[in-house]
Amino acid sequence: METAIFLKEALPESGSYCVFASNTSADKRSQQFFDSVDDVVDAAQDLDTKGYDVYFALASFKEAKSRKVDNVQHLKSFFLDLDCGPSKDFVSQTEAIAQLKMFCKQLQLPRPLLINSGRGIHVYWVLSEAVPLDDWLPVALRLKQLCAENNFLADPAVTADAARVLRIPRTHNYKPEIPAEVDFVGTHLPTLVDFDLFSRLLGNDLIPVPTRRFDGANAVMNAALSNREYRFKDILLKTSKGEGCAQIQKALTNPNGVSEPIWRGMLSVLKACSDGSREKAHKISKGYDGYDPEETDSKWDNLTSDKRYTCVKFEETEPETCLQCPNRGKYRSPLHIGKRVREATEEENTVEAPALDLPNAPVNTYVIPKYPFPYIRGTNGGVYIRSQDSEGNENEERIYHNDIYIVKRIVDLELGESVVVRLHLPRDGVREFTLPLTAVTSKEELRKNMSMHGVAVSRVEKLMEYITTWVNELQEKEVAEKAYRQFGWIDDEATGFVLGNQMILKDEVVFNPPSKATVGMFPAFEPQGTLDEWREVINFYNKPGFELHQYATCTGFGSVLMQFIDDIACSALHLYSKESGLGKTTAMKASASIWGDPAELVINEQDTHNTKMNRSEVLHNLPLLIDELTNAKSEALSTLALQFTTGKQRGRLISGGNAERLRGESWSLLALTTGNTSIIERIRMKKDNPNAEAQRILEVRVEKMFTGSSSKEETDDFSRALGKCYGHAGPIFVQYVINNLDEVKRLIREIQIRVDKKARLSSENRFWSVHATLTLAGAIIAKQLGLIRFDIPALTDWTISMLLENKAKAHDMAVSIEQTLNEYVNEHIDNILRIKSTSDLRKVDGTTMESIILPEAVPRNKLVARYETDIKKLYLVPKPLRLWCGEQQINYGAFVNDLVEKLGGKRMKMRLSKGTQLNMPPTDVIAVQFSEGDDEEESIENV
């Protein structure tokens, strides 16, 4: 027999396992705890090769830190240590085994499993089920007492020591000069012993063997006992085959040949069975010649559980019949012959339980589906398999003592197919998790995945077969669902909202399985603190003068309403101030706290552009929060501002391939950023007219609101509180939107009309309009729900003022066509040919030729324009002008049209080298004639 097989039978299914090792020669000791038997075996083999004597604890432990009795959780065997040797209790192992046989025969104990410890013998009675310490100890003490009473010299220090360690088979005993092998005596598998039977054989009427508790201390035992039922039909079937109860066999076949006590005992067994009834009592009693219906009714009515016959009672009444029984000594009662798992009914498959990982859904109603054939669910939970042997006998085996089943199949476009597993834990509640199919078909991967989620089984093969059966059945019946790759709304009708592992629906919150794209952010949405605590924390901003901070906070609510705005993917608000410590970042954290952990939801400027865009895609409708853009370059800020509003990441190829990376749906959200400088001013350093960016980003300069150390202490406390209390308001807000969608859309339309009118916004300001509208709508709804207590009229007035201020700044920033042309000329002044016109300077001397004129300035590099100083005319070369417009992000075609329409420019051909020694052919130019007195003319001429 293999060590692993033995340990899996001898150790409890749950808890931590302990390995103790000692190297006497090196004076070294080691004690380690493991979660699986396989790890115990691996550690034992490793320590054995290093010369250690290796032992395992017979118990499992509650915590992996101590091998003390008060940490013992379960035991699954009774054991003895027989010391052998010239100076020991037994002269030899042969003598020890001989006396053990006599001891077992005297007490009618079942055959134990023996291990040669290298010197002595270790004796094991392995139980069919693990038991808690309180149940095990009285029986172990009784075994110890009987050893002493029968002069059987087992080591008394071992027998009732729940924290005892004994040697692991297939290791070595290094105490002798020549190490001795620790191995099994014989090759037979351990005979599993029923705990009740073993305690009875020891004489449970003489010791205080307790009634086993149902308090959750022994979950495996609780599941087995609570799901147990006895069927008289099965007892009769086995009895008819000669495999049942001899007393019942005799009573049925020879009713006139049994005594009244035996008849009464048979009725007591019938009444304890789930299919027992008064009618059946009469039916089996009618065969008796002296049958009296009234007497039968009287007997039936007086039969109570304390009067139920055990095997001992039957044997005391009529010992001769019991001596011929094939089950003598196996069971405590004939009831056990008809023992089976009571299958749950449809009503019992509907349970209410707390959702372990869904704090926003504290109690859910779960309808547990019918398990696939041949598996059944016990009436109080657990997974069992029911089968028949070749002779038609029904066999049952427990797969797992708690409810565990597959809810649905999902397909992740990147990871492939997975299944959603639902686990019911008796104390914790219901947990749901995703299991990839690659783990379902691998024992080790399945063990790791299951252990990670709290499922501890010693025989993972059985669980693998069960889950595989589930998968195959679902593949036949259902279509796999798509794993959501983005948070936020799941459809245009707003029927559901994904927030971490939560799917928020109209009237419930259910589990949302992770995808490769979202799983990394799941922890960010695990709520902390309570809703009431968050309300009090956020009320810090409920003061006059804090409208900016209120607005920034409510951006978090408004962001999820972007789903209902057409043609705009994002609008942003940038908070800036030269000084630090003014509350910009804290206001951003307040916005994040609506949905989750601010520390995880706020990203920084140091994150790459691709990271920011990927975060936008994953967030989908949740607010995008970027802190400290102070050091970002102008080009990066411009790119960020413009790509925000596209709603999509840039297309990229998969590494090492020609296929495009998978992209999600367009995002629709509000963004909030902070920095020490204005984004628009930073962009303007490299771009003459950043109007496109300015129309996409609202900017507000943050003023100092706090003075003195006491104010700083308050703000520090507020910031710390936000880091400890978050994630409660968002789901409430979303469920309101789902249930009142038409009203919410109407509110958005009404607010936008009022905002546009008061702030005099045009279509050019549509991004600003959306940001303000949705933030105010979010604030109004949040206050209606009691989430905030902000002064909405004051917040609205501040918002209108902010919009008007941004509009004024945008107007001041507008650049005329003259300014743009002047910028181009000034930047390229060294590459402009400045020369007088040659139109009237021709002379004829036998040939017609142009006069050679001394230029006032010649280009130092590439020629970009010609300016004739006497007639004040500028000829622009299109190609360098087009390149410059591209660098400045100016629309070249629109700029040229403005030159033609506003400055009278003309497209024509011109020899730019005219009047010089170069005889170049004519080329396309844009000619602009300046009038007398133009400032632009003077600036060019006088350079």
Describe the overall structure.
The protein is 38% helix and 19% strand. The strands form eleven sheets. It has a five-stranded antiparallel β-sheet. Strands 28-29-30-27-31 form a five-stranded parallel β-sheet. A five-stranded mixed β-sheet has the order 32-35-36-38-37. It folds into five domains: 3-201, 2-Layer Sandwich (Alpha-Beta Plaits); 228-341, no CATH class; 350-483, no CATH class; 523-652 and 662-813, no CATH class; 817-941, no CATH class. Mean pLDDT is 85; it is low at 204-217, 840-849 and 935-943. It is α+β, with helices and mostly antiparallel strands and 943 residues long. Strand 28 (602-604), helix 22 and strand 29 (624-627) form a beta-alpha-beta unit. Helix 10 packs antiparallel against helix 11 (278-285), helix 19 (547-559) packs parallel to helix 20 and helix 19 (547-559) packs across helix 29 (766-784). It contains 34 helices and 38 strands.
